[in-house]
Amino acid sequence: MPELPEVETIRRQLAPLVEGSRLERMEILDPRWSRPLAPHEVSSALENRRVEELGRRGKYLLWSFEGDVHLAQHLRMTGVVLSDPDPEPAHTRVRLRFGPADPARPAGGTGSAETLSARRNLVIVDPRRFGTGELLLGSEVLEEFFAARLGLEPLDDGFTSEHLHALARNRTAPIKALLLDQRKIAGVGNIYADESLHRAGIHPLRPAGRLSRSQRAALRESVIDALLAGIDARGATIDDYRHLDGVEGSFQDQFLVYGRAAEPCTKCGSTIVKMVVAGRGTYVCETCQPRPRRPRRRQRG
Fold first, then answer.
1. Marked catalytic residue, from 2, 5, 39, 154
2. I want to staple 42 with a disulfide (CB 3.0 to 4.6 A). Which of 34, 152, 209, 275 is the partner?
């Protein structure tokens, strides 16, 4: 947490407020947020630059400033971005002050006249202090950064059953481990992996390389459906995630399995169980998602 839907929700709320605006001041209160660079190195590179676009790659918020300067922000487990909070929350790690938007708005920029003329104060809050901000100078450095960390994301047109087959081929690790590997599939975390696998009727322990063609097709559709449902619900709030204005998301009210151990499955009524898969707490209905059989050992003759 936050995963792709939560980060996309933040991006959609934040983009109209900052695109076209100039970052007047950046105060990094926690040096760990900007490591390996010192706070002043990041702030001096970004201050007085206009935000051309606020994008997203997987679970990263991608701030693109004029001059081909970029900031890749990862919220990790407990990070949130809040606008003009009063009072300022505890565990604030970064303060950002934006001036009014420049008259020449970047392509695709949106926002009301009142929004564009306003100054905006943002804070990045992170109780567990895992979130990061990576300064990336130039498009080539930007692409290299993400190429080393992120695979294709499910909302990309290239995320097909054939692509999923190529990723899973000959892999003996559980399919859930593949879904969580950001270098293979970007943006899916623990919540949406469990919800996707339940929708597809696939047990999280099934070896990725043993999915049938129909299972791969079902999983592709279910991953996309779960992510889009999360975006429509403006994310899921389990502990810390909040919208820009501090309001909680609502996708947790639609969970089919995640966090529902010992409760009845909404599809079949069987009891949902919790187990550990790929090092993560995992929720599954073993009636709707049959546990894979162990392959038979060949007898020596």
1. 2
2. 34
